[in-house]
Specification:
This protein has 189 residues and is an alpha+beta fold. The chain folds into two domains: 100 residues, Orthogonal Bundle (Peroxidase, domain 1); 73 residues. The protein is built from nine helices and four strands; from the N terminus they run ααααααβαβββαα. The chain has a four-stranded mixed beta sheet with strand order 2-1-3-4. A hairpin with a 2-residue loop joins strand 3 and strand 4. Helix 1 packs across helix 6, helix 2 runs antiparallel to helix 6 and helix 4 runs antiparallel to helix 5. The termini are far apart.
């Protein structure tokens, strides 16, 4: 079974249990904290290691997170380590966050510009996105700066990319010149 499928199944199970027990927000906080801990390369190597026995992993996870995480989250982590699925925890956490955003109708949007935007400009973009039918009313807007864009912006959300950058337009223009049928017909004569 693929990692994506495994992660989706476990994340879906945890989210269903959290909703059923009315602990969705608390469990999301726990999963977010675990996801952030997974960015530590030593912790990630520990979780993914096939050499360390799952009982040792279970003991260390319990030591690290017990008292800080909800009992539901701790029970979930216990089940995963007993089943030997702890290596998939970072992927499960990422999938859980995606499922949570679907339930709460949150659209994550990445806005990349050539220069930093003012707060007013970011708010104007957020308003325009909310007015469209392409996004939810709840928008998580992340901004980035890439001077290589020269000007304009790139919007990414829900697997879609809207590239309105000068760099993109220049590449399109170059391709149009390369594919210019008029010139190729002159050369062919």
């Amino acid at each position: 079974m693929s990692v994506t499928r495994i992660a989706h199944r476990y994340a879906k199970s945890l989210i269903d249990l959290a909703v059923e027990q009315n602990k969705l927000e608390r469990v999301r906080e726990d999963v977010q904290a675990f996801k952030e801990a997974s960015t530590n390369k030593d912790f990630r190597a520990f979780i993914k290691s096939p050499i360390i026995h799952h009982t040792k992993k279970k003991q260390i996870i319990k030591t690290l997170f017990e008292g800080k995480f909800d009992t539901l989250t701790m029970s979930f982590l216990d089940i995963l380590t007993r089943k030997g699925r702890e290596e998939y925890l970072p992927e499960i956490a990422a999938e859980f966050i995606q499922e949570y955003k679907k339930i709460k109708h949150i659209t994550t949007v990445r806005l990349t510009t050539a220069t930093p935007l003012s707060e007013a400009a970011v708010n104007a973009v957020r308003t325009k996105l909310i007015d469209t039918t392409k996004t939810s009313d709840n928008i998580e807007l992340m901004t980035a700066v890439d001077p290589d864009l020269i000007g304009g912006y790139v919007l990414e959300f829900d697997g879609n990319v809207y590239d309105a950058s000068i760099k993109h337009k220049l590449v399109q223009l170059k391709d149009d010149f390369d594919d210019n049928l008029y010139i190729s017909q002159i050369i062919a004569r």
